Amino acid sequence: xxxxxxxxxxxxxxxxxxxxxxxxxxxxxxxxxxxxxxxxxxxxxxxxxxxxxxxxxxxxxxxxxxxxxxxxxxxxxxxxxxxxxxxxxxxxxxxxxxxxxxxxxxxxxxxxxxxxxxxxxxxxxxxxxxxxxxxxxxxxxxxxxxxxxxxxxxxxxxxxxxxxxxxxxxxxxxxxxxxxxxxxxxxxxxxxxxxxxxxxxxxxxxxxxxxxxxxxxxxxxxxxxxxxxxxxxxxxxxxxxxxxxxxxxxxxxxxxxxxxxxxxxxxxxxxxxxxxxxxxxxxxxxxxxxxxxxxxxxxxxxxxxxxxxxxxxxxxxxxxxxxxxxxxxxxxxxxxx
Length: 337
Description:
mainly alpha
């Protein structure tokens, strides 16, 4: 019963609307620019670049600048790697899973080592695998240029916290210290979960195995075993509810500008709840992701929502299994450290 009560418990509000508004502006302005240029194919690069603004939402100005800059550069590198893979002939889905698993491990170690918040490597893996799977990516200079401009804009918005009243978003949340053994185990778990989820996602045949990878590593980004299992449950429940919302929104067959407006609103709502209640945030984050897919690379709605639901369940299930099996070993390493 305690687990059920925990699922329905919302965290306290901490001026979340301020950070949510900043992050929404971070995606809105670049998105409007590429739309005005008539380049909806570049919208996904603006979206991935805007992930920079999600980092360091409750840190001091200096730490925010450093952490957002580092996160932005890593995201840019993942996008570049994804474009290299997409441009290479004959690269299979399994190869993308293998490379993405290494990205998951290295990204998680980097995030833990320097104290990035949010922790883990979800955005790094999401950026790489999404671009690597594009059937016909735009020229690298254009895609990376949009991403770089968006990253710089989001870092600038974070800096405005110094001069805009009310934009200082709370006390800093500092990252903990990790020993070499802990970092090794930490990265290994991300590698194993991403690899298993991606391979099973490939074998499922429903497509978008990268969503299984993202769901799995999102769950294990939580700090301990109970929190990871809880995060997996939130991920499944929130995503399935979000898939239903997505079906309704995409079923309306909105035009590009209307879809862009929906994306901006969903970004704000998702960030408004992501710290307080993860499942509720996914009610908005799920249609946000699917609307971005439709804006940049349209595909049948039914196939899209089914893929998201199935792959998320796969990834969350893999995360729970790995957590249960590896927790004794992880606990021993933690205790020794």
